[in-house]
């Protein structure tokens, strides 16, 4: 059973639909007992860092996640789930979960795209990956595959060893971060067509 | 580098896809869920649905369509048409759409953009705009006037000023339709698209007038749109999405290749 963490962030049903489509059992939950009993955890969400942290703390989900990571349970973060695992977010100056040393930064409209155009924010649409470290969850993903992004902030881990892949949008930013039993994508696996579903499927059998 | 998006647009009336010219003379062209699946498999980057159901009582049919689409395709899609309140937005988003688009309702009540952005995030709120060239004047400095009610009612509002105001209110994207070009298959309105795209900081989807892959190339390069909406050129099988994308790639436009 996979527990999809419910902390009042949007987009949970999309993740649930994608996992169900793969024929894998999952539940959307904020109950600590169910999260403890689950074999794997997906930590998705869209929204603002401040509101997300507030809800996580209110439901005690920050502790539940920390414990899951500590005992080696596979955890998959998506979008805001790849950001608030860091120490701090520039979005409303929010202290975050600190599972991973680093800061969540905002794109600057002063940056330019590769062809010299001003950067539109959010970074919305399909973009590729430059994989820095081969990872079992990326098995079956090809170098030309693209993924769907919607975000105005991005994770910047302190330790380059925790950057699994990077993406270019005006600047080069970490689009997959992780270590040991944690894997987190800035892009939406549930909305990235077949390659996104492939990574989700890989996660469901991952033995870190 | 971010790819330009190719977005088929489906007009849905009472649960069936239709296509009209200049907002009139709609004919039935199929089941929206089947069409969404075919476009998903063919490499569409996103899909836009407009609910043009006239009767308010029959609007729930669209929520069923949205739910079925969400269980079938795993790319983003947006829904517009008849969304007047934050509750309407919530229903569509809960049914599985990524984004909602507001057009006439936002002109009549701009606060709905801010309310929607606050409740669901800017990225969820698309401003749909129907603009028509009427010539520059003191009232309409850009020369492009906003129309509502499916292009029937002129609002004495300048298109560029409205785009900037909507961005300030929290719109995350603009879907810009040219009334002059819509249904002509003679190409997008490049001046209008470039004007808006150059002046806002949010993505712009160009709409109206697509007839050939060259039209998409022009609007995505010369007019700097971030995405291009297509309808009849793919609905009637004149072109496939693969053909359009392969032409664009060979013209140097960065697009997402699939399969």
Structure report:
The complex is a heterodimer of chains A (208) and B (259). Chain A is an alpha/beta fold and 208 residues long. Chain A has one domain (2-205): 3-Layer(aba) Sandwich (Rossmann fold), CATH 3.40.50.880. Chain A has helices spanning 12-21, 32-37, 49-58, 61-70, 80-83, 193-205; strands at 2-5, 26-29, 40-43, 75-78, 86-89, 94-95, 100-106, 123-128, 130-131, 146-151, 153-157, 163-169, 171-179, 182-185. In chain A, the strands form three sheets. In chain A, strands 2-1-3-4-14-13-12-9 form an eight-stranded mixed beta sheet, with helices on both faces. A four-stranded mixed beta sheet of chain A has the order 6-5-7-11, covered by helices on one side. In chain A, strands 8-10 form a two-stranded antiparallel sheet. Chain A is globular. The relative contact order of chain A is 0.18. Chain B has 259 residues and is an alpha/beta fold. Chain B has a single domain, classed as TIM Barrel (Alpha-Beta Barrel). Chain B is 36% helix and 27% strand. Chain B has an eight-stranded parallel β-barrel, surrounded by seven helices. In chain B, helix 3 (86-94) links the parallel strand 5 (77-80) and strand 6 (99-102). The longest helix of chain B has 13 residues, at 60-72. Chain B is globular and about 50 Å long. The two termini of chain B are 20 Å apart. The model of chain B has no long low-confidence stretch (mean pLDDT 93). The interface between A and B is large, with 40 and 33 residues.
């Amino acid at each position: 059973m996979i527990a999809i963490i419910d902390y009042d962030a949007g987009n949970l049903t999309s993740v649930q639909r994608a996992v169900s489509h793969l024929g894998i059992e999952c539940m959307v939950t904020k109950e600590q007992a169910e999260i403890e009993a689950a074999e794997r955890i997906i930590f998705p969400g869209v929204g603002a860092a401040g509101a997300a942290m507030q809800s996580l703390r209110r439901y005690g989900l920050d502790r539940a996640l920390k414990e899951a990571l500590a005992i080696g349970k596979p955890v998959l973060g998506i979008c805001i789930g790849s950001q608030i695992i860091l120490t701090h977010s520039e979005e409303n100056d929010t202290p975050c979960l600190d599972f991973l040393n680093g800061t969540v930064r905002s794109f600057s409209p002063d940056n330019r795209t590769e062809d010299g155009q001003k950067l539109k924010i959010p970074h919305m649409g399909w973009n590729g990956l430059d994989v820095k470290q081969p990872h079992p969850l990326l098995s079956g993903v090809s170098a030309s595959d693209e993924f769907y992004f919607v975000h105005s902030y991005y994770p910047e881990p302190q330790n380059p060893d925790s950057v699994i892949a990077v993406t270019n949008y005006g600047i080069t930013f970490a689009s997959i971060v992780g270590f040991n039993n944690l894997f987190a994508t800035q892009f939406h696996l549930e909305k990235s067509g077949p390659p996104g579903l492939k990574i989700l499927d890989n996660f469901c059998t991952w033995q870190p | 580098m971010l790819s330009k998006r190719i977005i088929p647009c489906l007009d849905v009336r009472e649960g069936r896809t239709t296509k009209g010219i200049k907002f009139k003379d709609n004919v039935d062209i199929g089941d929206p869920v089947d069409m969404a699946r075919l476009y998903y498999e063919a490499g569409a980057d996103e899909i836009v649905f407009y609910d043009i159901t006239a009767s308010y009582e029959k609007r729930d049919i669209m929520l069923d369509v949205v739910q079925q689409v969400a269980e079938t395709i795993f790319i983003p899609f947006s829904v517009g048409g008849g969304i007047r309140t934050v509750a309407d937005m919530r229903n569509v988003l809960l049914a599985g759409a990524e984004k909602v688009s507001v057009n006439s309702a936002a002109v009549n009540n701009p606060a709905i953009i801010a309310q929607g952005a606050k409740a669901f995030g800017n990225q969820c709120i698309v401003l749909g705009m129907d603009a028509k060239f009427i010539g520059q004047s003191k009232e309409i400095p850009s020369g492009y006037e906003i129309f509502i009610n499916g292009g029937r009612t002129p609002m004495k509002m300048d298109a560029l000023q409205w785009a900037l105001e909507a961005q300030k209110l929290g719109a995350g994207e603009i879907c810009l339709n040219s009334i002059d070009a819509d249904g002509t298959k003679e190409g997008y309105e490049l001046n209008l698209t470039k004007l808006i795209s150059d002046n806002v900081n949010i993505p712009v989807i160009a709409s109206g007038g697509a007839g050939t892959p060259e039209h998409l190339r022009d609007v995505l390069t010369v007019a700097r749109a971030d995405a291009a909406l297509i309808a009849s050129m793919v609905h009637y099988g004149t072109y496939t999405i693969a053909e359009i994308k392969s032409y664009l790639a060979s013209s140097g436009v960065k697009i997402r290749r699939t399969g």
